[in-house]
Every structure is written in C-alpha cells, then in structure tokens.
C-alpha cells in the first residue's frame, strides 16, 4: 500500500518526526544534568559531614552509633555514584546514539527529497516543451489556414494575374506543410510527456515515498527503543541502589548501645583507687578530735564531690584518685618549730603538731625523700601534656604507652625488612655486577641502620616508662586491688592503705635507690633528660653508675644529691669497679 501522494504533506511529516527526535534527545540530556547535579550535591553533602583526619569525630568512630553514621555517609556516596552512572549511560546509550542516528536520517531524507524534486523538475520541463510545441502548432495552423483562404480568394479574383494566383497557392502549400510538421512535433512531445508523467506518478514518486515511509518507520522504531532505554537505564542500577539502602538499614541495626557504653568505660577508665570514708568530726565536744585512721585530715568543712565540681569547673578534678581532693596542701602542715596557732575563744587549744599529727609526720618523712618525686599533688594544678603521658590517669597512660610501643615496633619491623631487602640486593649486585653497583646502595643501607638505631633507642625509652606501670599493677594485686582500683576477692585492704599507697611507693623507691654504686661515668655530651625516668646531664659531669646497661642502650646513674635516672649509654664514658 502506498504511503501517500502528497509531497508537501510527506515533507512536513518527516521533518516533524526528526524534530521529535531532537526534542527527546534534549529532554534526556537535561535529565542527565539533573542526575549529575543531584549526585554532585550528594557527594558534597557526604564530604561535609565526613570527619577530617585526626579530628575528634574520627576518634569517636569506635562507638557504633558514630560508625553507623559514617557507614550511612559512605552508602550515600555510593548511591551518588549510581546516579552518576545513570546519567552517563543515558548520555551514551540515548543522547549520543540518537544524535548520531538523527544525522543519518537527515542525510537520507535529504537524498530522497532531492530525487523527488529532480523527477518533478524533469516532468515540468517536458510539459513546457509540450506546451511550446502545442502553441507553435496552433500558430502555424492558423497561418496555413489564412494562406489557403488567400489563395482561394486570389484564384476567384478576375483581376488577379495567373502569376499572382500561382504565388498564393505556393504560399498556402508551404504554410500547410509547416503546420503539418508542427502537428507531428506536438504529437511527439505529447507522447513523451504522457510517458514521463506515467513514470513519475506510477513509478518514480511511489518509490521515493516508499523510501521515505521506510525511513520514518525506522525513525519511530529507534525512538521507541530510546523510550525503553530511559527506564531500563535506571532499572539496571536499581539492585545496586537497593544494596546501598540495605547498607543504610544495616548501619542502623548495627548500633549497639551497650557496647558503646563498654567502649566508653574502657576508653576513660582512670585506674585510680576509690577514696576512703571521712570521719565524723564532733565539734560539740571540748576536746581535740582524734587523728583519722583513714584520711590525712581536712582543712575547714569538707565539701562533697558535686560542690567541688561545680565551683572548680576550670580545674581538673579526679573523682576517683589516689591523690584525693581531701589531701592536705603543704601549707596546711605545721612544722615542729612553728609556734602553735591561736585558738578560738570558746574552742579547744591547737595541738603542737597542728590539727593532724599524722600529717605532720608524713611531711617530715617526705622531706627526706628525693625532691623530684612528689607524694601528694595539689589538684588545682592543670595537667601538662608530657611525652610519657604522665598527664593521663594510670589506666589510660598504660594504654597510650602500650599503643606507642606497638607503633614503634611496627615501624622498626618495616625498617628491619627494608634492611634485609637492601642486604639481599647488595649481595645480588656483588655476584652480578652487570645488574647494578653495590656501592650505590650504601646511602640507603646507612640511613636504614640509623633509623633502626633511633627506633630501638626510642623503643627502649618507652619500655622503661612502661615498666613502672607493670610494677604498680603487681603492687595493687598484692594489696588486694585490681588495676582499676576495685578490691579483689582475695582480700580487702585497710581504708588508709589506699590513701598512703603513693607514699609507700615513694618510700620503696627511696630504699631501692640506696643500692651501692658499681662504678663511675663521665658525660661526653649534654643530655636534657626531658622524659620521665631520665636525668639531666652536663658535659664533663661525673656520675655514679647504679645499674649497668642491659642491652637497651640506657644506664642508670645517681648524682651526689641522691637524684637518680637513666641516661644514654653512648653519651658517657663508663669505668666500673672491680
């Protein structure tokens, strides 16, 4: 069945179809821009709420509710990637493909329309020739008819000569002959035009219209495929998007409030012992109160923990601490030589040793202990961040030191592995000189050796820092306490032992420091002794050797005033006693 026979309508219809393809391509392109902007905004949103490296939020990721939020951000980032994939596939499979196909259709349509136009122009040209021959035939036939009438009139005229009559007849015959020739030419042109017109309407134009029909049907089919791809492109990524949403749901179900509480407890557990009970101070009696067996005495009316926290928000306060808030400050202890303070008019006289004789005795004994160790700290002092983490509670200090040791150990192992690899490479170069120069590896080998030596010294330093904590754990266990300060099942310590524990540790350290020296050493370099457990040293200074280097690179020495500490063995010249 023929598609149609109206050229102008077919021209407009095919043009409208191509414009529809262009419109759909533009629509899909704008849709891809929306998807790309949506994905870009999602990525910016996730980046905005993702914690930066080393910030507080990143450290809180050990809690499940914080980690789940990060998981949700990661899933949203993946979800944004899928939206970008939708935009990319739509652009590639729809926009680019249809645009390319549209150009081909335009060229094909132009060719078919050009063929139709040529056929029409050819038919019009033939018709013009036919019309020209027809008019000529008409004109010549009239002239021939006039010439014949003139010849007949001349022949009947009695005044005309025979020559005039003969001339008129010849003119009539000539005109008749020309008219016959024009008639024959007109007949030939008419036959030619009828043939071309039949070819045009029954062959050429139907063929061209069929080609245009086929082209338009292919355009419609291709456009329909583009419509289907519009949904299939998004449907193909739906499983991955579903997994992203499942990941968000899983992040919510992974939150465990109980485990978060346990993690918080383990992170900030101080390890301090709980303070003992306070004694009742009876001021209604006219006698001095008895010395407390479980506390070091107080100044004025004791304050509860909540009151202390409320009034000293800007100062650190350990609620559970061996150095209790109730411990006396040095100014509260009255020396033996200080005269007794005046008493109130209606109160008891002040004792010779102040309000608490035990406090005075502790202070007098503490004067004999080395000044670098303080038995009782004032809680009003802000903790200073130190290299040995001494500003942290015992439990947290132990964890940080252990973490530091692990980090140094990993770094040292990397250097050891690199050193072994360099040694093997050097051996290969020595056996096969064509592969490389062994001397070229010397700088790397030397640098690696220096790094290993530095890390070993650092590791030994932190091991020395960590060893007193292990001793403290053993002491707590011996006294019937766990490292966190809770009483153990084996025994319940006397309340006063918790308060005097640090003083006992200092006294035992003092006894250990009285070990006889095993030699002397002379400092070859200055040493600052900034870390805990070390001691400062000036070049040329002579010190007593108390403990020999055990292979960790550190030697324990003592000054004449009794101060002891560790120094690098390589910094001194040692002479041991025989």
Automatic annotation (TrEMBL):
SMART domains the record matches: FCH, SH3
Composition skew (Pro residues), residue ranges: 337-351
Record has Membrane as a keyword: yes
Main location: membrane
GO molecular function: lipid binding
Cellular localization per UniProt: Cell membrane; Cytoplasm, Cell cortex; Cytoplasm, Cytoskeleton; Lysosome
Domain of life of the native organism: Eukaryota
Protein name: Thyroid hormone receptor interactor 10a
Species, as recorded: Oncorhynchus mykiss
Taxonomic placement: Eukaryota, Metazoa, Chordata, Craniata, Vertebrata
């Amino acid at each position: 069945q023929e598609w149609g026979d109206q050229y102008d309508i077919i021209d407009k219809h095919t043009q409208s179809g191509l414009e529809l393809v262009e419109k759909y391509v533009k629509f899909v392109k704008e849709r891809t821009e929306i998807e790309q902007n949506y994905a870009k905004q999602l990525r910016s949103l996730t980046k905005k709420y993702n914690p930066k490296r080393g910030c507080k939020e990143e450290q809180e990721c050990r809690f499940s509710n914080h980690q789940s939020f990060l998981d949700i951000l990661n899933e949203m980032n993946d979800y944004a990637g899928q939206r970008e994939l939708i935009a990319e596939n739509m652009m590639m499979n729809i926009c680019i493909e249809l645009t390319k196909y549209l150009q081909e259709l335009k060229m094909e349509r132009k060719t078919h329309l050009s063929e139709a136009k040529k056929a029409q122009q050819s038919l019009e040209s033939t018709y013009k020739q036919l019309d020209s021959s027809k008019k000529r035939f008409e004109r010549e036939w009239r002239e021939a008819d006039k010439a014949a009438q003139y010849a007949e009139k001349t022949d009947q005229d009695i005044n005309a000569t025979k020559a005039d009559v003969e001339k008129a007849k010849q003119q009539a015959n000539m005109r008749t002959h020309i008219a016959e020739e024009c008639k024959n030419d007109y007949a030939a042109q008419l036959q030619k035009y009828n043939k071309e017109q039949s070819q045009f309407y029954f062959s050429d134009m139907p063929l061209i219209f069929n080609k245009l029909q086929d082209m338009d049907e292919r355009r419609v089919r291709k456009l329909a495929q583009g419509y289907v791809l519009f949904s299939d492109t998004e449907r193909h990524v739906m499983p991955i998007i579903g997994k992203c949403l499942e990941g968000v749901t899983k992040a919510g179900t992974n939150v465990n409030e109980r485990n978060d509480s346990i993690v918080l407890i383990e992170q900030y557990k101080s390890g301090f012992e709980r303070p003992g009970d306070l004694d009742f101070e009876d001021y209604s009696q006219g006698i001095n109160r008895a010395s407390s067996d479980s506390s070091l005495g107080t100044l004025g009316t004791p304050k509860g923990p909540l009151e202390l926290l409320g009034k000293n928000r800007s100062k650190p306060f350990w609620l559970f601490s061996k150095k209790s808030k109730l411990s006396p400050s040095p100014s509260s202890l009255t020396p033996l030589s200080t005269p007794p303070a005046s008493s109130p008019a209606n109160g008891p006289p002040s004792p010779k040793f102040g309000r608490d004789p035990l406090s005075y005795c502790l202070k007098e004994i503490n004067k004999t202990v080395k000044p670098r160790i303080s038995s009782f700290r004032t809680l009003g002092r802000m903790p200073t961040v130190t290299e040995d983490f001494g500003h942290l509670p015992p439990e947290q200090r132990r964890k940080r030191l252990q973490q530091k040791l692990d980090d140094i150990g990993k770094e040292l192992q990397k250097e050891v592995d690199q050193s072994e690899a360099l040694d093997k490479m050097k051996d290969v170069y020595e056996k096969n000189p064509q592969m490389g120069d062994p001397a070229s590896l010397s700088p790397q080998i030397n640098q690696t050796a220096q790094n290993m030596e530095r890390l070993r010294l650092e590791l030994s330093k932190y091991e020395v820092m960590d060893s007193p904590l292990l001793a403290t754990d053993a002491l707590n266990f011996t006294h019937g306490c766990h490292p966190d300060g809770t009483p153990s099942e084996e025994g319940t310590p006397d309340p006063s032992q918790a308060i005097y524990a640090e003083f006992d540790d200092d006294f035992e350290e003092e006894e250990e420091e009285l070990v006889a020296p095993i030699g002397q050493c002379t400092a070859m370099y200055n040493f600052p002794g900034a870390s805990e457990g070390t001691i400062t040293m000036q070049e040329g200074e002579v010190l007593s050797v108390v403990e020999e280097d055990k292979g960790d690179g550190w030697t324990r020495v003592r000054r004449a005033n009794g101060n002891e500490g560790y120094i690098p063995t390589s910094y001194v010249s040692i002479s041991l006693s025989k």
